[in-house]
Every structure is written in C-alpha cells, then in structure tokens.
Automatic annotation (TrEMBL):
Species this protein is from: Aureimonas phyllosphaerae
Residues annotated as domain CobW C-terminal: 254-350
Pfam family, one: cobW
InterPro entries assigned: CobW-likC_sf, CobW-like_C, CobW/HypB/UreG_nucleotide-bd, P-loop_NTPase, Zinc-reg_GTPase_activator
Similarity annotation: Belongs to the SIMIBI class G3E GTPase family. ZNG1 subfamily.
Protein name: G3E family GTPase
Catalyzed reactions: GTP + H2O = GDP + phosphate + H(+)
An MF annotation (GO) of this entry: hydrolase activity
Stated role: Zinc chaperone that directly transfers zinc cofactor to target proteins, thereby activating them. Zinc is transferred from the CXCC motif in the GTPase domain to the zinc binding site in target proteins in a process requiring GTP hydrolysis.
C-alpha cells in the first residue's frame, strides 16, 4: 500500500535506536536505509556537542533527516523532540512532506532512553499519531564490556531494549562473557549479531505491549531518575552543564569538545593531532569523530572515528554533502579533557598556533611542551 501525502497512515511506528558512544548506530542505520522496506523513513539524529557531524554521515535524502544537536535528547533537547514530531505531523497534513511510514530516533551514545519513551508514550497529541515500535540497543563487542562496567547509561540502554544487537564481532569474536552480562541486564530481548540484523529483525516486530511498557517506563523513571517535568533534567545526580557553545557540552563528568578549522589541513597534521590527543588524554577519551577538509583531496572529506583508544580505519566520502561548505570539524567526548591544551594542540597542527603556545614542530619534538605552560 502506498501511503498518501497529506495523510498519516495510522499511528506511525517509532523506533528508538540507541547504544553507547561509537557502538555503530549510524553505520547500521546507513545499511538499513538502503533497504526498500525502509523507504519513507524519517531519521531524527541527536548528537551530544555543539558541532553535529552525524547529519553528514547518515546517508538519507535531505528532507528525511532531522538533526537535534548540542544537547542530549534524554534531557536538554527532549522538548525539541516533541516539537519535531509534532512538526512532522503538521508537514504531512499540510502536504509539505510526503508519506511517512516510520520514524527512527538515533539517540546520542550517552542517552538514557527512558525519558524519551516517557515523552513518546505520555504526550496526549503524539500518541494519536505515533506508536513506539521498540528500542533497539547496539552493544560493541570491542568496548561494550568496559562501557557496561563503567557507565550507568550503557546499562540502562541494555535494560530497556526490545532488541539487542552485537556489533564489531568481526574485531572481537569472543563474546561469551559479554553475552552473559547482557542476559543478566536484560533476559527478554532477543540478541542478534549485526550481520544478521535486517529491517525484519529490528522493526515492526510488535514486541512492545503499550500497557506493560507504560508500567515499565514509570518504574524505570521512579527507580533512578526522579523526572519532574518535560523540560527538567531527568537525573538529579548528573550535574549536567546545560550551557552550550565554546565550552563544550557536558553529561555528568563527561564533556564534549568541538574544534573547527576553515582552511584545508594535511592528513599528516590531522593524524599528528590525533596521536597527541590519544597519548595525552587516551585514558579519559570515550569517543572522537572528525570530518577533515584535506589538502590532498579537498573535494572528498576524510572521516575519522575513534572509540576509546581504538582508531577505526579512516574513510573518504565521495563528496561533500549537498549544502555543506567544506571545513574540518573534530568532536571529542570524554572525561578529563583539558580544553585549553587540546585547543592549543589543534591550533598547532592546523598551522595556526596560538600566541605563546608551541607550534607543530615544537610539539613533534617534545609532545609535553604544552605542560610548560602550566596546564
Ligand atoms: N569493524 C567494524 N567496525 C564497525 C562496526 N560497526 C561500526 N563500526 C565502526 O565504528 C565506528 C563508529 O561507528 P558509528 O556508526 O559512527 O557509531 P555510532 O554509534 O553512530 O557513534 P556515536 O553516534 O558517536 O555514538 C566507525 O568507524 C564504524 O565504521 C562493525 O560491526 N565492525
């Protein structure tokens, strides 16, 4: 059946796609979106940090992506999510947007999905147009055990999953201990390896019973979050820094730092910067991603991904996405990231050293030379 523009075909199924930082959400989404079964899917991408990169990396048509940046969907931009869904309804009903068959919300890697579910299931207008289809949680075989051990958000993502997807088993085939931990946190969600996860395994499985789920969500919220109203931060202990801009964004002690540069840089300089960041801050670094405007191939952005200290192979996009002016953007997420030192390092490798800070040559000779500034 082809859905008609101007009419929502019954409640539109909404999938919440979550998983800790770098677990492979965008990668899986890109593969799934190529499947004709997922045409007319709207993807809502939420990123933690002032500079969003995922909208460049999700391969979908422009009008099929909505970006919610500079805040985490489970707290600071939750009102934006409600507005975005309400706006989708309005755009379909007024004919400004064609049919919508499905919505996928890709959360930040630090999101607690529970408040998102509460918004979806408790909003009097949204429930008339949208129905929760399920929570799909990705767990990275390489770093999932560490994330589950250290981060309550990672455990919560697993606990409220309707489907668990194990990624990066090609890099770490030994998964018995991790599977055991996942079963301990969530005994009911089927667990599939990412290679076996097609749209049929993840979407439209009818796993969510609204009545039971509403009770679950209320219990989860009551247990750990103490939510007060739609705009309130859900975690009384999180200490979220709700300010934005140059000082990065914070989620508890975790903060996000964004760096941009408007002149092409060499691949060697981008890699040299990363090497020094990993050497200096690797212990606290949870995630880095970058889109680099390079001297070598200015028309083809270089994409870099790191998860903890593991650097994934770099890739080149075919071209800059429509409407995107070339520029370099790095996003670093972690604990104990010293913003001044990192900005000085970046400026040196971008060949625009800050006054009184060592230049690239000095840093390559002596990577600790920034310490002499007293940081
Ligand atoms: N080898 C391998 N690499 C993977 C797999 N899934 C994802 N990756 C790589 O892991 C890195 C991070 O993947 P993303 O899809 O960006 O992860 P994400 O969960 O969207 O990241 P955040 O939005 O930052 O939380 C990229 O370099 C991917 O190519 C996998 O199954 N195997």
């Amino acid at each position: 059946m082809t859905a008609q523009p101007g009419v929502l075909p019954g409640p539109v199924p909404v999938t919440v796609l979550t998983g800790f930082l770098g677990s492979g959400k965008t990668t899986l989404l890109n593969r799934l979106l190529r499947d004709p079964a997922l045409r007319d899917t709207v993807v809502i991408v939420n990123e933690f940090g002032a500079v969003g990169l995922d909208h460049l990396l999700v391969e979908s048509s422009g009008e099929g992506i909505v970006e919610l940046s500079d805040g985490c969907i489970c707290c600071t931009v939750r009102g934006d999510l409600v507005d975005t869904l309400a706006d989708l309804v309005d755009r379909v009903q007024t004919g400004r947007l064609g049919a919508i068959r499905r919505v996928v919300i890709e959360t930040t890697g630090l999101a607690d999905p529970t408040p998102i579910l509460a918004s979806l299931m408790g909003h009097p207008v949204l429930v008339q147009h949208f129905a929760l289809d399920g929570v799909v949680t990705l767990v990275d075989a390489l770093s999932g055990a560490a994330s589950l051990a250290e981060r309550p958000e990672a455990r919560r993502q697993v606990a409220c999953a309707d489907r668990l997807v194990l990624t990066k088993t090609d890099l770490e085939p030994e998964t018995a201990a991790l599977r055991h931990s996942l079963r301990h946190l969530n005994a009911r969600a089927p667990l599939v390896a990412v290679g076996d996860a097609g749209p049929g395994e993840l979407f439209g499985c009818g796993l969510v019973d609204p009545a039971t789920r509403r009770a679950d969500v209320a219990r989860w919220l009551g247990e750990e979050t103490g939510i007060r109203n739609a705009d309130a931060c859900h975690d009384p202990h999180c200490g979220h820094d709700h300010s934005h801009g140059d000082h990065g964004s914070a989620h508890g002690a975790i903060r996000s730092l964004s760096l941009t540069h408007d002149v092409p840089m060499t691949e060697a300089d981008a890699e040299g910067f990363l090497d020094l960041v990993l050497t200096r801050f690797g212990a606290g670094l949870l995630r880095l991603k970058a889109v680099v405007w390079t001297v070598e191939m200015p028309g083809r952005p270089l994409v870099l991904h790191g998860v903890r200290t593991y650097l994934h192979p770099s890739v080149r996009l075919v071209t800059w996405p429509d409407g995107e002016a070339p520029r370099t953007a790095f996003v670093l997420i972690g604990e104990g990231l010293d913003e001044r030192v990192i900005r000085d390092l970046f400026a040196a490798f971008a060949r625009a050293p800050r006054i009184d800070a060592p230049d690239r040559a000095a840093l390559v000779d002596n990577p600790l030379s920034l310490s002499s500034r007293g940081f």
